[in-house]
Amino acid sequence: MNADEPADARGTNPGTPELNGHSATEPHGVDTAHRLNWLRAGVLGANDGIVSVAAIVVGVAGATAGSGPILTAGVAGVVGGAVSMALGEYVSVSSQSDSQRALIEKERRELAESPDEELAELTALYQAKGLRPETAAKMAKELTARDVVAAHLSAELNIDETDIVSPWHAAFASALAFTIGAILPMLAILLPPPDLRIPLTFVSVLVALALTGALGAWIGGGSRTKAAVRVVVGGALALAATFLIGNLLGASGVV
Fold first, then answer.
1. Do residues 245 and 69 lie in contact, with contact meaning Cβ atoms separated by under 8 Å?
2. b/e for 178-197, b at 16 or more Cβ within 10 A?
3. Which of 82, 131, 188, 248 has the smallest number of CB atoms closer than 10 Å to its CB?
4. Which DSSP letter does residue 166 get?
């Protein structure tokens, strides 16, 4: 740093942009949280793919040892599940995005029609967060001068105009995560010899569920052990139920 350049109280050059004590080149909390939410959604989607397809192929394998019916049912489960996940995510995120855009447009209208009232409202919001009246008024004016819409959306609605999720992206990510998860039970049921299919599928699926459950809990900050136990128990019950039903149908000659 040049000796003629002023430094702040921490001895840093004010020309270096910083936010909340972090360099502008470092990742910040909001960005990290957003990425972790996507990662957690991906883990849950993969978990759905594992359980859903495993239950289908194990049920069919309980009724018949033929690879053809198992493969057909498994592929149908993968395609149907991926499409269902994508459609559900698309509809859900579309509704959320439409609601956010409507709120943004409403805020724009209010700012255009009554800017003074909106500034007073923004000041009051900062006061409610604990700022002194003069500090809240100064902060509201400075943020309004920088980006009035962003300031109001953040303070009033906790919305970032540039961070609205695309329904298409969400649908694709959900379908992809489901498909990736579904690959494991498909391989576990089709690759081994017929007499090892069921036990190997049970073991591989339950191990995978324990891992995804623990990973999802770690991302969300919860107990990894409890989450792993929950998904393993649920997955084991689903596999046992479908295998029992398939076995009974096969033994009865219905299929």
1. no
2. bbebbebbbebbeeeeeeeb
3. 248
4. P
